[in-house]
Amino acid sequence: MALFVRVVENKSFSETAKRVGIPISTVSRKISELEKSLNIRLLERSTRKLRLTEIGQEYYEFCRRGLEEFETGTLMINNKQSEVSGTIRFSAPPNLANILIAPMVCAFLEKYPKVNIKVFISERNLDLIEDGVDVTLRVGELEDSNLIAQEIIQYRHILVSSNDYLNTHAEIKHPKDLLNHRIVTFSGWHAPTIWKLTNKSKTEKITLSSSLSINDYAGIIYAVEKGQGITEIPSIICQSIIQSGRIIEILPNWNLPKTKLSIIYPSNRNLSRMVRLFIDFCIQHVKEWKPI
Predict the structure, then answer these.
(1) β-pairing, 193-199 with 202-208?
(2) b/e map 270-279, b = 16+ CB within 10 Å
(3) How many CB atoms lie within 10 A of CB 206?
(4) What's the pLDDT at 208?
(5) pLDDT in tens, 102-129
(6) Which one of 1.10.10.10, 3.40.50.1470, 3.40.50.150, 1.10.220.30 gives the CATH number of domain 2-83?
(7) Which pairs count as long-range contacts for 80-85, CB under 8 Å and 24+ apart, including other chains?
(8) Digit-coded pLDDT (tens) for 69-87
(9) Would you say 26 and 17 are in contact if contact means Cβ atoms under 8 Å apart?
(10) Among the four 43, 47, 200, 235, which has the fewest Cβ within 10 Å?
(11) How far apart are CA 60 and CA 284, in angstroms?
(12) Which residue, 154, 177, 181, 115, is CA-closest to 257?
């Protein structure tokens, strides 16, 4: 149909072929195929000129208007893409929400004020297709799926406490010493608290009884700052707190296992410019946290 309109406007098969960049034989064949599919004659051809048939003239008007609408729609999409506007549906785990996610989302909105972001914080791994999620962050090992998963960073959890607590309790030189201390943990109602710590070739696996459990790291940080005990916390969310002296790292030579943080989205295919920019922004933002 597009070639048919161009042939009519250019009044020539050869001129259309030249402007479109395809062989004249292809133009002729495509027009013939169009006529055959419609079972009508659209053009009368001679060696010197082309002439629209009566029904060809009517059909040309429909095609021309249709292509104009198509071009208007394409221009609308291009304009939308260039101005970066629309809605992004984003999900993330609760342990990163307050400290990492909120600042990241706000920074993106400052850069692209015409974008709307709907953030859903959930411990459950959402079904991106069924739940209509554009992008999600996930912690830990990922199950095999048809989704695109890009690892952003690997980090460790570290053991921390406050000066006030450490100054009034027994010294901690070895992981087993933790058994005699108050422990604040990130966990659900019934999950056991087990810390596996490694120092070179040595490994200690300790089952602890927690005095306080909260499934939110902002709450854990608050409790530890107030002297409630010792906790383990993701290194990517506590640099500024440690630098401020509000909490300090303990047993720095004993390492908890590494954790992966990945960004996941349905596919690379047909990603809008807005979503692609958001994915790249998330990756860069997280990497700038420089985990301990």
Answers:
(1) antiparallel
(2) ebeebbebbb
(3) 15
(4) 86
(5) 888 999 999 899 899 999 887 777 777 7
(6) 1.10.10.10
(7) 81/272, 81/273, 81/274, 82/273, 83/114, 84/112, 84/114, 84/115, 84/273, 84/274, 84/277, 85/112, 85/114, 85/115, 85/274
(8) 888 787 777 666 667 788 9
(9) yes
(10) 47
(11) 51
(12) 154
Written as six digits, the tokens of 250 are: 């303990």
DSSP bridge pairs for 260:
154
Q: What is the pTM of this model?
A: 0.60
Q: Position of tokens 């990163």?
A: 96
Pick the CATH number of 86-154+264-287 from 1.10.10.10, 3.30.930.10, 3.40.190.10, 3.90.960.10: 3.40.190.10
Q: Contact 256/232 with Cβ under 8 angstroms?
A: yes
> pLDDT below 50 — which residues of the chain?
none
pLDDT at 248: 92
